[in-house]
């Protein structure tokens, strides 16, 4: 039982310090007998409990944030996810997304795990800050995706709803201005969702699956067995054309594929890698 009088000013001070709700702050101060540091710890523990309780919940909403280095050779993408759309629009959530992206830019972590361990200006790690906001909001928040990629020229695109982002690595720029072309290709990736840059980048398991599906379809159509392999090879080439970036028809000019569009933009220009992230996909 608390022997210390908890005033409204005390509650408000703790609320300002932690961002937690008024009643939560009052309960924490009562339980901590007026000790502010202990109350902060109690609120943090509450956040951890909330986080654990909601660990199985789906995070289909959130915000994708991107930063490109001043010289254009590095791009970082952070997808901070939550459970519901209203939370993704809350100022605290959006501020957290920007703080996590700023930490990535400042410390250059290679993985999401390294990003989560970075200590922010207030002395808390990214992971601890996410846990505390989870406690305050009462909804699961996670770094759903993080990418840190480098190359000759990085171009980015974020969809208008903030839930999809793309990073594209271009090589063979040779001083050309690829601002518009780069944006077009990034938007192509957003719209068409290729599985790889080119044929060589497709997972062998995916190729085998496409071949087996094609064979089953061909046999079901009653085609002679001696024709199955040849027709299946044709269907695989169609898969490459539809599903690998450089072989896809360019969405703004179907008379050329993306490979040809890039070469027409600047001789030797190509894409060597990309990252596409879509929350809720």
UniProtKB/TrEMBL annotation:
Gene for this chain: tsf
Gene3D superfamilies the record matches: 1.10.286.20, DNA helicase RuvA subunit, C-terminal domain, Elongation factor Ts, dimerisation domain
Organism: Pedobacter yonginense
Family: Belongs to the EF-Ts family.
Protein's UniProt name: Elongation factor Ts
SUPFAM superfamilies: Elongation factor Ts (EF-Ts), dimerisation domain, UBA-like
Domain Translation elongation factor EFTs/EF1B dimerisation, first and last residues per copy: 76-280
InterPro entries: EF-Ts_dimer_sf, Transl_elong_EFTs/EF1B, Transl_elong_EFTs/EF1B_dimer, Transl_elong_Ts_CS, UBA-like_sf
Gene Ontology molecular functions: translation elongation factor activity
Location, primary (coarse class): cytoplasm
Gene Ontology cellular-component terms listed: cytoplasm
Top-level taxon of the source organism: Bacteria
PANTHER family the record matches: ELONGATION FACTOR TS, ELONGATION FACTOR TS, MITOCHONDRIAL
Function: Associates with the EF-Tu.GDP complex and induces the exchange of GDP to GTP. It remains bound to the aminoacyl-tRNA.EF-Tu.GTP complex up to the GTP hydrolysis stage on the ribosome.
Keywords: Cytoplasm, Elongation factor, Protein biosynthesis
Cellular compartments annotated: Cytoplasm
